[in-house]
Specification:
Length: about 240
Amino acid sequence: MRTNNPMLKEEAFRKAPASSGTMTVGGTAGKAFIMLALLLGTAVYAYMQVVQNKMSMGVMIGALLIAMILAFATAFVPKISPVTAPVYAAVEGIVLGTISAMYMQRFGDQVVLYAVLLTISVMFAMLLLYATRVIKVTNKFRMGVLSATLGVLFMYLIVAVMQLFGVSVPFLHDGGTIAIIVSAVVIVIAALNLVLDFDFIENGARSGAPKYMEWYGALGLMLTLVWLYLEILRLVSYFVRND
């Protein structure tokens, strides 16, 4: 029962105190859809505000900081997830809406539409592969995805540090062959994390975790979906740029 998603760690279920009602897969899915609706609502609002030049970058940065604080707070105190999870979804929607509008202004309307459709398609494809056990979550599978995810995070960290010192990494962002390959690999890794998330939620429900853990599990799943969408958006922009 291990996953790369910091929100969906085994300890959260094991240490959860007993409460009225238990976590279910269906209940977690319902919470995830509620969060998705909140995220889409605020994303559309932020998108329109940016298009009409009524929202500054400061709003997005503030929303991003709040989202990060909420995610870390919930990771340490899962019991607050019924409050923090929906708020996170609403705040994260502002971030995604702003970023999507920026991509739209630079690459055209279709880039966002394609990214949304591809993200949904990948999510349901991975869910189908997991449900039919075409992809089986074994210890080797978990370790492989974990290692790959840590590698991606390490790459992000190195690039961020280099940019702080004014050193750019053009081959990762110029839309060339290397950038496309790297982005595609990251998308595959993010998609495989969805499988681990599905498996962890199922095991959590089977173990009889408290009802509030449905929000906790939904928040963890949302984190992976946000990562997946942003990477797909980046990849789609490369192809639009190269047309």
